[in-house]
Design a protein that fits this description.
Chain lengths: 623, 267
């Protein structure tokens, strides 16, 4: 372990056995909730009729439960007690158990994030399947009440956005790969990182349990003043998102610091891998905008619990909308910027050609990051003054220019290359195609006059699924197949991989391209009941959606199978030059036995070093 | 050079096919239009389609064509791609064109169509409009016609109904509160007033008054085309899917007749 703990040397160490951390965390969370909840509900703030759960009691109970969870999982021995100079050691978990325990190893943390994200993805995906079952009929037939359907939409969106979209490529792949890519054996703040990952399951569970407090019907955006009038389930939406965004914020602080200060010797800004640039850009977005939405949600919680009138009719509902989208649009770039970076990471390796116009790719990432703060109100053309529309329309159209640079760089890289059509490259091409459709339809939405018709219809639903599933999820799959040999030392089955890619492509494009048409025909969002003329197209979309759901499941099973019992491959099967491939696959506890020194570009395939050798024992790597 | 030539030919061919498709089907983008505002939106959309088609074809063709042409033919482990790491002409053309196309889109149709809309909604343009007061509550639409003294337009079944004369500009005055509980100011939420066939919607916000202008161009009704309906487009609670009302666009004479009948019924 490269991290020195406080009080490492002189104190005599007590060895202590603890129960499985996850079990202990759950137990402490339960105890924390019961104690604090009862304290508030019965002693500090008793309400008429002595209800067991009140709004204040559940908020404070949740805070205690989250603290209990983090302490129980290992925060007590590793963070809290050392802060007071007390050292407790206990046998470190080994084997699969270490993935269910506090660990400061960035690779373990990366896998923990990936597993949490995958769990969130399939839970929220199941919610989507339930929605599609309901939408096969034009009346209530699957869900008993409309509110339950709308709540399912909200849970789907919330979990997808905050535990998958912003987490998988940043907390997951970022934590695993970024320290290795910049030649470091650890991230900058390993203990913070070790705790932050456990906020993800806590946040997902909070959102899933929200129906216990009542059907909230706002969707993932928590629009006011509806949120004020909704049942208390909305509190668990705010608190769950708070936990998830705090986790992402800590990831970003950690990875930004890692990239700034832990780069290997010779890894100048001009040589920094594209994925590190992407993570840097997205981390800056997170650091700027996540605190903003967290404060907004705290205001919204106070609005309900105190209560205060910030966002009601006597306050200003529009202010909440502005505050939400001020974060909400950068959010979608938080999701796709790492995906752009992964395109530019994978494609030169598959093309065996230097990355074309690398500087322009970086300029694209940085300008997307900066412009994303200027476009939020295009979500609000239907509720803003006419005079406010055009600036947002302008920046929304302009942001397509730096976004296009990612395409320019990849196309330039592929041109006259020796392209290898592998499963990762197939997924990247599909991702670029789907994101292109998302971008092109965005041009229509950026135009206020057209937006007034398309806003809040399924056209918008299709548009943002093309950008998020098309841009991010397809790229996530590309990345999982690309780095699978790194994680496990094994290779996927090509035929199964191609089948998986085509399967999800057909399911995805079938379902969501029809949603454009459906929206144009007058299908609005958040409705389990709709006019009968829309039923036919809804049934077809549902069938494609089920195909898509099964396709994702197929890819999950295939990847899991390949990691466990795929064919063993050499350590650098793609002959990539980036540093993470210069370690053993799977990497050892310490990725690099000696600090690597970088002497050239990672994307240069034109030198004479045609079949560069992979050191059998990790040692200084020079290029 | 051969690559470039083949690609260029394919690009032109597919772009022409795409443009023919836009000419043939582009006007169906808005499935059903029953107002001048919808027609404005539609023509803006068709313009965007015209320009986006060659761009879309270019990128998609690149994504398919290059990997196919460049696919590694041998299984050598040491192959390297040829080609430059930078090409000033390509980058210059790409950056200039994307800037030019976006500036063009901002000028036309974005600003030009928006200016048209601003003009229609300006006070000067609203001299002889029919004024319809729209009140949204959870979960119902109320329509009243202050110029005719109709307080709450209802059909024979007692459901809220919207009648509009054809070819006459209408100004909808949009408010969100509960007329049955006017003392509870914190009661209502954001709704969105949308008639799909009119090609526009406007949010109805508690504590604020918003306006939407439309000029119906066709005699139609919810019964003849379900896109002619008032639909709440912003999620407003569990009753949101049920928050719709029927719409009738009728001739001037029929409208006068309907007004008389409403007044007689004491609505």
């Amino acid at each position: 372990m490269s991290v020195a703990r406080i009080g490492d040397a002189p104190l005599p160490l007590r060895k202590k056995q603890i129960m499985p951390p996850v079990i202990r965390g759950l137990l402490w969370a339960g105890i924390g909730f019961l104690v604090v909840n009862c304290l508030v509900a019965y002693l500090l703030d008793p309400q008429y009729g002595d209800p067991f759960i009140t709004q204040p009691s559940v908020v404070f109970g949740w805070i205690a439960a989250t603290a209990g969870w983090l302490l129980g999982i290992g925060g007590l021995e590793n963070v809290l007690l050392p802060s007071f100079g007390i050292t407790v050691t206990y046998p470190e978990a080994t084997g699969w158990r270490r993935y269910f325990a506090y660990s400061t190893n960035h690779k373990v943390i990366g896998i923990q994030y990936l597993v949490s994200s995958t769990g969130g993805f399939f839970i929220a995906g199941l919610a989507a399947m339930l929605m599609r079952i309901q939408l096969m009929g034009d009346h209530m037939w699957f869900f008993p009440y409309a509110g339950q359907y709308i709540e399912t939409v909200g849970i789907h969106g919330t979990i997808m956005m905050f535990s998958v979209g912003t987490v998988a490529l940043v907390g997951g792949l970022g934590n695993y790969l970024i320290p290795m890519m910049i030649g470091s054996n650890s991230s900058a703040f390993p203990r913070m990182s070790a705790l932050s990952v456990w906020l993800v399951p806590a946040g997902i569970m909070t959102v899933i349990l929200s129906p216990l407090l009542g059907e909230w019907t706002t969707g993932w955006r928590g629009y006011e003043p509806l949120a004020q009038n909704d049942p208390n389930g909305i509190l668990f939406y705010y608190l769950g998102v708070l936990a998830l965004t705090l986790s992402s914020l800590m990831v970003s602080l950690n990875l930004t610091t890692t990239i700034l200060f832990k780069r290997a010797k010779g890894l100048t800004w001009n040589r920094l891998p594209m994925y590190a640039w992407g993570i840097l850009a997205v981390s800056l977005l997170n650091i700027i905008w996540l605190p903003e939405i967290e404060i907004t949600f705290i205001l919204a919680v106070l609005d309900r619990v105190v209560p205060l009138p910030f966002f009601t009719a006597v306050g200003s509902p529009i202010t909440y909308l502005e505050l939400f989208w001020l974060f909400g649009h950068p959010e979608v770039y938080i999701i796709v910027v790492p995906a752009f970076a992964i395109w530019m990471e994978i494609m030169p390796v598959m093309a065996r050609k230097p990355l074309f116009a690398r500087e322009w790719g970086i300029i694209g990432l940085i300008f997307v990051m900066m412009l994303s703060g200027f476009v939020w109100a295009h979500h609000m053309f239907t509720n803003m003054r006419l005079t406010e529309m055009l600036p947002f329309s302008f920046f929304t159209e302009m942001i397509s220019i730096p976004t296009g640079f990612a395409y320019m760089v990849v196309i330039g890289t592929l041109w006259r290359s020796r392209f290898r059509m592998t499963v990762p490259s197939l997924f990247v091409l599909m991702s670029m195609f789907n994101f292109l459709i998302g971008g092109m339809t965005g041009v229509f939405l950026a135009d206020p006059v057209i937006n007034l018709q398309l806003h809040d219809t399924f056209f918008v639903v299709a548009h943002f699924h093309f950008t998020i599933i098309g841009g991010m999820v397809f790229t996530w799959l590309a990345a999982m197949y690309y780095w699978l040999p790194k994680f496990s030392g094994r290779m996927y089955n090509s035929k199964m991989g191609v089948l998986g890619a085509i399967w999800v492509f057909i399911g995805f494009d079938g379902a969501f391209s029809l949603m454009f048409i459906q929206g144009l025909r007058g299908m609005n969002r958040w409705v389990p009941v709709y006019p009968p003329y829309l039923q036919g197209i809804n049934i077809v979309i549902s069938i494609f959606a089920f195909i898509l759901g099964l396709g994702f499941l197929f890819n999950l099973i295939h990847i899991a199978w390949a990691m466990k019992s795929g064919k063993k491959v050499q350590e650098n099967p793609w002959q990539s030059k980036t540093l993470e491939w210069q370690t053993t696959s799977p990497p050892a506890e310490e990725s690099f036995a000696a600090a690597p020194v970088v002497t050239g570009s990672f994307y240069d395939y034109e030198d004479d070093d045609e079949s560069f050798s992979i050191p059998t024992t990790p040692g200084p790597v020079s290029m | 050079m051969a690559d470039l030539l083949i690609f260029g030919v394919l690009w032109v061919v597919f772009s022409v096919l795409g443009e023919l498709g836009v000419s043939a089907w582009g006007h169906n983008f808005y499935y059903y239009t029953a107002s001048t505002q919808a027609l404005d939106g539609l023509s803006a959309s068709v313009f965007l389609f015209r320009f986006l088609t060659p761009i879309f074809v270019f990128v998609v063709l690149m994504l398919i064509f290059i990997p196919l042409r460049a696919r590694r033919r041998s299984r050598d482990s040491v192959v390297r791609g040829k080609g430059a790491r930078f090409n000033a002409t390509y980058v210059t053309i790409w950056v200039t064109l994307s800037l030019a196309v976006n500036l063009l889109f901002f000028v036309h149709p974005t600003t030009s169509a928006a200016e048209q809309m601003f003009k229609e909604m300006s006070p000067q343009a609203e001299q002889h409009d029919l004024v319809v007061d729209v009140v949204a509550r959870q979960w119902q639409w109320f329509f009243s016609y202050p110029q005719y003294g109709i307080q709450n337009a209802l059909n024979a079944n007692g459901n809220n109904v919207l009648y509009l004369p054809v070819n006459r500009p209408v100004e909808f005055v949009l408010r969100s509160y509960d007329p049955n509980h006017p003392y509870a100011v914190g009661l209502d939420v954001i709704h969105s007033f949308w008639i799909p066939a009119f090609g526009e919607k406007m949010d109805v916000i508690p504590g604020e008054t918003r306006y939407m202008v439309a000029t119906p161009t066709k005699i139609a009704s919810t019964e003849t085309n379900p896109e002619v309906r008032v639909q709440c487009a912003e999620v407003c609670g569990p009753g949101h899917p049920y928050m719709y009302a029927t719409v009738h666009i009728v001739s001037d004479a029929a409208f006068k007749q309907w007004v008389k009948q409403q007044l007689k019924a004491g609505n």
